[in-house]
Write a structure and sequence with these properties.
Structural class of chain A: mainly alpha
Number of helices of chain A: 14
Radius of gyration of chain B: 24 Å
Number of strands of chain A: 2
Shape of chain A: globular
Distance between the termini of chain A: 62 Å
Helix content of chain B: over 70%
Strand content of chain B: under 5%
Helix content of chain A: 55-70%
Oligomer: heterodimer
Order of helices and strands of chain A: HHEEHHHHHHHHHHHH
Largest sheet of chain A: 2 strands, antiparallel
Distance between the termini of chain B: 22 Å
Strand content of chain A: under 5%
Largest interface: A-B, 106 and 103 residues
Largest sheet of chain B: none
Structural class of chain B: mainly alpha
């Protein structure tokens, strides 16, 4: 018994053997696990999983957000049918698709090339460049929106001045329905690129040096080495970056809400903005939820396809 | 890490690569540069055509105006409360849950873990409507608790902590148990010090994420006195569309960006490495 032990000698007492009732007890370990996990399970269960189920349930009901939830009526697939007949919502889905596609097509190759530039040649200052690239990721989107809306500003904005300097007529950027969505994609790429570059540089460090040595002995040039070593060996990281780009851009909300409100002429209306507007401005929670479930299904589909691609590549 | 693959041999090659490197750095830097100089321009200079590339008569009026026209200091404090609270909570919940998922064995563990990880890919907009309904019916809308509650634990944190704690040797934990250390003490005294870089990474990531989170505070907060700085900026932005007010908004954007930028720059060595390994391990 350790009745005599006092706090002052606690340090040495700790190493003495003493009867352990608790440590080896599996039941106690189980209680510990439950205690350690409960805050997480409570928060994620209550505020992510339950709302997810509720979203699915609400999507089959008609419910105005301004009335109690007990007042909602079951309408089956009506909300989904209406979704497909509503040209604004169909356009929102199409715009989101274009936005995601353009984001992936610009971001992934660009991030790959920059990652190669930052990894392979021993250039002075490349670590500084990495930090600069990543800095745009930590700035609040609203601050970036404010900067870019001024950079895009007609007349006094620097971008138009630059385009004019090389003798071209600058487009209306955000105010031109043809350019607005692309302007938002450029904005997105600018903000997120650094993050993907870091992920890809990390992927490059995992490729064994010997592969390149062997390729060089065989007389393979840089293009050949990139094509037959770097790209296949990096495919895991590349798929991950594609997935993250899709997930991040499919839920774009802040710049749309802040800059264009979906305009001009609905050209930048996207799914997240349409969900928020349907629910919180028009109170149509059922329609908003049907759209939300559709977005969710799209993400699941993307995950399944990318997973299949990875499996095929591994074979 | 010895990398000898490409050593640019000729001067032309070296020059080309450095030019590319400078472009890669200039593109992210330019808008940031524009943010800083615009904040210190006079309204007249700000809208001059063609734009000036350096403020000719720098002034602090805009910064002052941004700080006083709206309760900016209060909203910075609100952001600190919200981002700080979420960060501390996510650190605690993620380390504890990560430890269990890394070192304990029980039936259904993997199913539970991967179900949690799956929520990482669920965009908040998908569950926004019911989440608003839930928090509202708990009587917590328009309160700090309501803003914080859904973000007190998250899947990315649990995933990151679990990956790193798996690398902590079991023998070390067993030895600590032999010495009679409680599980709680094992975590804080033995595990956490070993995964410090990952903990720092998660802390910075969560702080940045919560500081910048816009959609949820926008949904749940009504009282301006509780607005985080991103909402106050929104307020400032829609205050007036007049041109001579635009660079007051820019000055506000500059101030609102400083905390996350500073936190990032202080921790960048560890943070960039941590984000990198989160991808490799994922």
């Amino acid at each position: 018994m350790n009745v005599t032990s006092t706090p002052t000698v606690g340090g040495s007492v700790r190493s003495l053997p003493r009867p352990r009732r608790r440590r080896t007890d599996r039941a106690h370990r189980g209680i510990t696990a439950a205690i350690f996990l409960s805050p997480t399970l409570l928060v994620i269960g209550l505020f992510t999983m339950v709302p997810m189920i509720m979203t699915i349930v609400i999507s089959f009901h008609r419910w105005s957000m301004f009335t109690p939830i007990t007042d909602m009526d079951f309408v089956g697939f009506d909300n989904y049918a209406r979704l497909l007949n509503d040209s604004a919502r169909v356009q929102a889905i199409a715009n989101t698709g274009v936005y995601v596609l353009l984001s992936v097509l610009i971001t992934v190759p660009l991030a790959f090339l920059i990652a190669m530039l930052l990894y392979f040649p021993r250039l002075r200052g490349r670590n500084v460049v990495r930090v600069i690239l990543f800095a745009t990721y930590v700035i609040p989107t609203i601050a970036i929106v404010i900067i870019w809306s001024n950079i895009y500003a007609p007349g006094y904005g620097p971008l138009s001045a630059m385009v004019q300097a090389i003798g071209l007529t600058p487009p209306g950027w955000l105010s031109d329905p043809q350019w607005a969505l692309l302007s938002l994609v450029i904005f997105n790429v600018w903000q997120m690129l650094g993050y993907y570059v870091i992920l890809l540089v990390a992927g490059l460090t995992q490729i064994p040096e010997e592969l390149y040595e062997a390729a060089k002995v065989d007389g393979a040039g840089i293009v050949r080495q990139t094509w037959s070593i770097t790209l296949p060996m990096l495919s895991g990281s590349l798929v991950f970056v594609v997935l993250m780009t899709i997930i991040n851009s499919i839920q774009v909300f802040d710049p749309i809400y802040l800059l264009t409100q979906g305009g001009p002429a609905g050209s930048t209306n996207v799914v997240s903005f349409e969900i928020q507007r349907s629910a919180f401005q028009y109170g149509q929670a059922g329609d908003a939820s049907a759209l939300a479930v559709s977005l969710f299904m799209l993400i699941v589909l993307v995950g399944v396809v990318l997973n299949a691609i990875l499996k095929v590549r591994k074979r | 890490m010895s990398r000898s693959r490409i050593r640019p041999r000729t001067l032309a090659q070296r020059t080309l690569l450095y030019v590319l490197l400078i472009i890669v750095a200039a593109v992210p830097l330019f808008p940031l540069y524009w943010l800083v100089i615009s904040a210190f321009k006079t309204p007249a200079e700000f809208v001059s055509i063609p734009p000036t590339w350096f403020p000719t008569s720098p002034t602090l009026d805009q910064v002052e105006s941004a700080l006083t026209d709206v309760p900016f200091a209060q909203s910075m404090l609100n952001s600190v409360i919200i981002a700080g609270g979420a960060t501390i909570s996510v650190l605690v919940t993620s380390i504890l849950a990560g430890y269990v998922f890394a070192k304990y064995h029980f039936r259904g563990k993997n199913l539970m873990f991967w179900s949690i990880v799956a929520t990482m890919f669920l965009p908040p907009i998908v569950t926004l409507v019911p989440l608003y309904y839930l928090i509202n019916s708990m009587g917590l809308s328009d309160s700090y608790i309501g803003v914080l509650l859904p973000w007190l634990a998250n899947a990315f944190g649990i995933f990151l902590m679990r990956q790193f704690i798996m690398d902590v040797p079991d023998e070390l934990i067993e030895a600590a148990r032999m010495d009679g250390a409680s599980e709680f003490r094992i975590v804080w005294q033995f595990v956490v010090p070993l995964i410090k870089p990952a903990v720092v990474t998660l802390a910075v990531f969560m702080f940045v994420f919560s500081w910048n989170n816009f959609l949820w505070p926008l949904t749940i907060l009504r009282t301006e006195a509780m607005y985080p700085v991103v909402l106050t900026l929104n307020r400032l932005m829609s205050y007036t569309m007049s041109f001579d007010y635009q660079n007051v908004v820019i000055a506000g954007a500059l101030i609102a960006s400083l905390p996350t930028l500073i936190v990032f720059l202080i921790s960048q060595r560890v943070f960039v490495q941590g984000i990198a390994s989160s991808g490799v391990k994922g």
